[in-house]
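During the reporting period, our protein records have gained a structure token line. One record among many is quoted in full directly below:
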Amino acid sequence: MTAIEPDDQEEKPLDPAMESVRRKMVRLQIVSGAIMFVSLMAVFGAVVYKTMREPKDTAPAAAASGVPSEAPLAATVSLPLGFKVQSTSFSAGQILFYGETVEGRNKALVFDLRTGRTIADVIVTGN
């Protein structure tokens, strides 16, 4: 059998030029590892941000209200006789007419553009 000499197993010290190169390589390895870790965390953070964020409504308001974009919508609203409109409001394809009836009572009427009819007739009273 061949006997392994203990002198062959020990590492001999490197000369100063090689030791400098080895230190530079270790430093380069640490820096590149840190950069890769930061990059991986940035990608992971972006994926988590995209999955946890509420979806944004990207459809135009006209499409959401059911109004065709290629042609204007024509509708006729039948308000009670003698109804005096004091204010109007539009939201989500519905128009609110607020005013006063012939009897002097405050009333709110809601007209839906999608269905083309009045969907709410509310009498407003005060204390």
Notes: The beta strands are 84-91, 94-100, 106-112, 117-124.
